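Need fresh eyes. Consider my entry:
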Amino acid sequence: MEYRHLGASGFKVPVLSFGTGTFGGKGEFFQAWGSTDVDEARRLIDICLDAGVTMFDTADIYSRGASESVLGEALKGKRDKAIISTKATFRFDDGPNNVGSSRFHLIQAVDAALKRLQTDYIDLFQLHGFDARTPVAEVLSTLDDLVRAGKIRYTGVSNFSGWHLMKSLDTADRYGYPRYVANQTYYSLVGRDYEWELMPLGVDQGVGAVVWSPLGWGRLTGKIKRGQPLPDTSRLHKTADMGPPVPEEYLYRVLDAIDEIAVETGKTVPQIALNWLLQRPTVSTVLIGARNEEQLRQNLGAVGWNLTPEQVARLDAASAVRQAYPYWHQEGFAERNPKAV
């Protein structure tokens, strides 16, 4: 397993990490993802550790804390071998202060996560979204206190706009607070918006991408075929409207290109989609999920080989879309404004 630095930090993470959104299975949304219990989680974690996949990502809202609880129980006796990544910001319950990134909520959320995870520290703690109602200095000073207390070691964000992230980094530099080194972001062959602003920012500021939903919200699993109905087992039946939209013909264009390369390489659709991501700038690690051992082992096959530059270029062309303004305008002035990719 290859390890990469997490952004500009000295901390290394595996290029593949395991996302535990399938753990717990509480609520209709997360039941559609999976309902892995502790025994099955132990089995999947053992497979991951044997393969060098040592980072496990969760969040407090995943199955209302059950994902963290299952992960913590399954990691008993193995904590020293694992990197734990979790997130908070979204509303956890009906309490007036149990949402956002206020000092009150972040301290409460971290302490609760530590209990559910049965650990003394969190390796990577990320804000699950931007809180426009809490001053950035309050957020960062709280995270600084939590780092100094030994409760968290590295900090990151998720689902931030470029200006959200840059304002936070500037404030951190101004007051000497820890800088965010990770950006947990949606990125895939059918979702390349990350490249427009967040990737160049990551290159410039040393923020590593922790990629979530690398298979395009379940669209790049190899189960979707042109002219065929959606498989009965696809979670898209329940979650398609909750995730990022992907035009049908665009999806099929990308899948056609992947299928051609699958024939050339002998690799599966998910393996090709994941390998493409691992060759993109700023990507520190890609979160893979799995409901069962078969899915996990297939995803692990995305490493140990590389697409050729020519194959990458074909996938780039098939998945290219016209960017939003001002990015399409900036493309015409590459001599003074080079892209990150």
